[in-house]
DNA sequence: ACAGTTTCCCGTAAATGC
DNA sequence: TGCATTTACGGGAAACTG
């Protein structure tokens, strides 16, 4: 049966951090006949705990009731916005310590319930509604895991409420998953993932296959198991890259300068017949949240030699923007004049043509001092 | 009259930040005859508020009573340590909003009181003692101001408690003050301030004088008024330098490589007859927490030309340690080969002799990538 | 409008619990 | 002991408040 009112926010916060304020809003979708008293709404966290399941338990630290009001910016329906709500964990319930459940914290799904009563022509009517599933975290380091849960849930079910979803999470086809991943990038950056990039991700996750689209990817493979030989999962690796783009690479990502998701094999295939100085930008597969460039080096033997720089991470990119690194990078080889080995962005666009608009002069005039900056260099011996 | 017990901690925390845990310890200095019950101590914040003075008011958020215990590590006397104490401001007292006092928050002096009662042979005895003055802040950005108060108080009074001290703070002679400042540096770094450095500070604070030692410095001049033409006070400037040393310059400061406090005039006098490549390290007077180097440039006209680089601040020094900057710094002049202009540390010590032990190789081997680093450069046109 | 002050909260480090 | 999770809090920025 259709709810007569709807929470219009949680959809949004979806991930709530304990001790950090969040906001939620409920709107009454039906017009009530004039009521002569104020309609008070109460918010309850996890009103319907899944029976038998061990869950962390939380409560709303701040005030939980508020009176509905006519919404100005709309067609005069009633709504209420709770601000400055804050969650805290109940460590003990009836003096007994709460145990951890069988799921990891970012797989626990919670919810906010809203309730109100009103009386119309002598009949008491109870209203109740409930938010979409919420993940509760205690530290931003858990955002990656929480976001994975939200994605998986939204991708694979239309149920508004299924707190047990992660007790046995369904698999996703690569067709579904790749679409969602691309959508993540286009939402948070402005550019999604193209066919080649998705293909590399598919191979990384599922190995070489004739066609990936019908392959099924398990929840565990996606974000719980580590990539073989690496201390992080596939999604963790990908989300750190997304964060790196958001904070340090946005314009050049959106401008399509970053091939990014390229296997070592494809990289070699792309570059091996290119002229020296051709380079491409690739996200590191060994380091979390790192980007590197690989270029073709002039070689005496005639065979193409590919060289990659140590990946730049967020801490290094906050010292110098990536476009400037590309512009100024120098390799110092014994006895030779330092030279910038980056000349043509793959397949063959002169570097400055691709990056000029992203160079950052940042020459702070600080009279009487002379300004200074960093030049990124590598030494070849 | 002598207190029969003493708080042994606050002396230490001296500055307490609201919402951040602190620890305090009280020790009973007299041996009590055996008592057959436990001696309970209660902690009270600002028990004796200065009458008539408007003060911010705080309370201890956490538990405030604890039982004294025989101290293991000592001669068996009673002591109690309060841990995880936390302060919170009372914004309203009896429903009335507390106004701000006439002093700035870091000039308000507070105190922790401790009280206990015991009964000996039918006589009730009350014990009470009180900490040294405390400054309460709400953000680390106020540490500089708080520390100034502590220094001024300790320098100019021996009273264990005088909450009104900053209602009319006494002046300090430069003799006293300079000693205290030098002591700050030696306590927090390992090297104090020498005569030349103190002389520069004296001139900065009081202008040119035959002898500074008898000059009186007002509290306001020290840390409330801005330096003419600058948006910060003398002490704020100095404390930012102290922080810079603590975090980024400790070994080279302790190794006496940093002249540091040098006026532009003295700098010119020192360097003007030195050979090209002679340089010295100086803290910026225009930027908070910055260090620069000034060197003698080879000049066609024969006259010495002094050049200073834009000051390095903590954010830039966390990208590259200062010793490496000195080692690798290059100036690029039109059409010339980039050159490191820093050759002899004033008065004439070959650079590597002074700095070699502080160079940091930090070559992270990251096969199959080639490692990279920053080279600090300036461009002269 | 503004300055002094506090609150907010990310992100790293340390502590805690299982 | 190691891993998962929470707590602690510095530091930059925003919000608050007379």
UniProtKB/TrEMBL annotation, chains A, B:
It comes from the Eukaryota. GO terms for biological process: cytokine-mediated signaling pathway. GO terms for cellular component: cytoplasm; nucleus. The keyword Transcription regulation applies. GO terms for molecular function: DNA binding; DNA-binding transcription factor activity. Keywords: Acetylation, Activator, Coiled coil, Cytoplasm, DNA-binding, Nucleus, Phosphoprotein, SH2 domain, Transcription, Transcription regulation. Residues 253-348 form the SH2 domain. It is found in: Cytoplasm; Nucleus. Belongs to the transcription factor STAT family. This is Signal transducer and activator of transcription. It comes from Oncorhynchus mykiss. The gene is stat4b. The chain holds residues 316 to 696 of 696 of the full protein.
């Amino acid at each position: 049966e259709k709810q007569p009112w709807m929470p219009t926010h949680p959809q949004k916060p979806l991930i709530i951090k304990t001790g950090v304020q969040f906001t939620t809003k409920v709107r009454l979708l039906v017009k009530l006949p004039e009521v002569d008293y104020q309609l008070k709404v109460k918010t309850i966290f996890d009103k319907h705990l899944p029976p038998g399941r061990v869950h962390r338990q939380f409560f709303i630290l701040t005030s939980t009731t508020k009176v509905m009001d006519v919404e100005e910016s709309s067609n005069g329906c009633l709504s209420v916005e709770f601000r400055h709500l804050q969650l805290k964990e109940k460590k003990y319930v009836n003096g007994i310590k709460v145990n951890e459940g069988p799921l990891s914290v970012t797989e626990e799904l919670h919810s906010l319930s809203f309730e109100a009563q009103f009386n119309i022509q002598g009949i008491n009517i109870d209203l109740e509604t409930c938010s979409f599933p919420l993940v509760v975290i205690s530290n931003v380091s858990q955002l990656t895991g929480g976001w994975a849960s939200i994605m998986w849930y939204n991708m694979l079910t239309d149920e508004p409420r299924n707190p047990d979803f992660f007790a046995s999470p369904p698999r996703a086809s690569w067709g579904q998953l790749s679409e969602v991943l691309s959508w993540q990038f286009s939402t948070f950056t402005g550019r999604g993932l193209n066919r080649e990039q998705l293909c590399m991700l598919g191979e990384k996750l599922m190995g070489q296959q004739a066609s990936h689209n019908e392959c099924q990817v398990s929840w565990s493979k996606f974000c719980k198991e580590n990539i073989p030989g690496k201390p992080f999962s596939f999604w963790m690796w990908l989300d750190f890259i997304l964060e790196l783009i958001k904070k340090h690479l946005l314009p050049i990502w959106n401008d399509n300068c970053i091939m990014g998701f390229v296997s070592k094999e494809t990289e070699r295939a792309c570059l091996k017949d290119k002229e020296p100085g051709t380079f491409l930008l690739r996200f590191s597969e060994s380091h979390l949240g790192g980007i590197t460039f690989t270029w073709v080096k002039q070689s005496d033997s005639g065979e193409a030699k590919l060289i990659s720089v140590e990946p730049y991470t967020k801490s290094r990119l906050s010292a110098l923007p990536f476009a400037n690194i590309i512009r100024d990078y120098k390799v110092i080889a014994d006895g030779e004049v330092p030279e910038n080995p980056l000349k043509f962005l793959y397949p063959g666009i002169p570097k400055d043509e691709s990056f000029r608009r992203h160079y950052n002069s940042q020459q702070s005039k600080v009279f009487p001092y002379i300004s200074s900056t960093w030049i990124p260099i590598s030494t070849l011996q």
